Amino acid sequence: MRALWLAEGGSFVPPGAGDFDLPPIFDGVTKPMILVVLSVIIISVFFLMASSRLKIVPNKFQFTAESIYDFGRNNIAREQIGSKEFMPFVPLILALFTFVLVNNIFGLIPLIQFPTMSHIGFPLALSLLVVYPIWHGVGFKRHGFLGYLKHQLMPPGAPAPIYLLLVPIELFTKFIMNPITLAIRVFAAMFAGHLILLVFTLAGEYLLIEGSGLLKGVSVVSFAFAIAMTFLEALIQVIQAYIFALLAANYIGQALATDH
């Protein structure tokens, strides 16, 4: 990360979007790329270890894994897709939830301190390359090509002339905007949250080192806000992972539904 305050003159340079553009570590491989791979390893090892020696009376580790699985299975997949259709999609929803969650939490882990989802490419890839084809694929398989388009674009009961307006709006919303906004939600939250933490932390450091008298005391306030925002950011990271998986399940449920 570039220097955020300058020694000459002691002028403060606030963090910005450029601080998220990390240089390659080797051969074009950047820190976010490594974190994505690391998150997959962490999640895989976690569930493999938790399921390797299952017990009727679970220990704390098994209980934690079962709780995460139960949350993804029943509170997200089952509720959004429906009790008759949800089971084939549980692995997908659980993978989306845990993957986004771990990559978000990276932003609070010492030495790592970078939420991978603050790079728009990662949530966009999840949305467009994973959720989008499955979402519409199951819809086309269930209703047929023309049947699914009618199901998505032509809400029943509307007067015929209204469809001239509804069809292009629904087409733009369902096939273009929804997958984009699915990615933007988590990206914007992680980008803004990490940027706020940087502002309070680095401003406090600057005031403590470069300030004098009362300004050094103000640095304590800045650090206090950074700590408070850290707890708030942790909550937002969990919520955003939940929302991403929830909306993905909701879109699949809508595609499978017989009613509009």
Please outline the helices and strands.
Layout: H1 31-52, H2 60-81, H3 90-105, H4 121-143, H5 145-153, H6 163-210, H7 214-256
Helix pairs in contact: 1-2, 1-3, 2-3, 2-7, 3-7, 4-5, 4-6, 4-7, 6-7
Brief summary:
This protein is mostly helical and 260 residues long.
Descriptive terms for the model:
single chain; mainly alpha; globular; 260 residues; 70% helix
Polypeptide structure, described:
With 260 residues, the protein is an all-alpha fold. The protein has one domain. Helix content is 70%, strand content 0%. It is built from 7 helices and no strands. Helix 1 packs across helix 2 (60-81) and helix 6 (163-210) packs antiparallel against helix 7. The radius of gyration is 23 Å and the shape is globular. The N and C termini lie far apart (49 Å). Mean pLDDT is 88; it is low at 1-9.
- Using DSSP, what is the number of strands? 0
Work out the helix count: 7
Cα separation of the termini: 49 Å
Beta-strand residue fraction: under 5%
Principal-axis shape equals globular
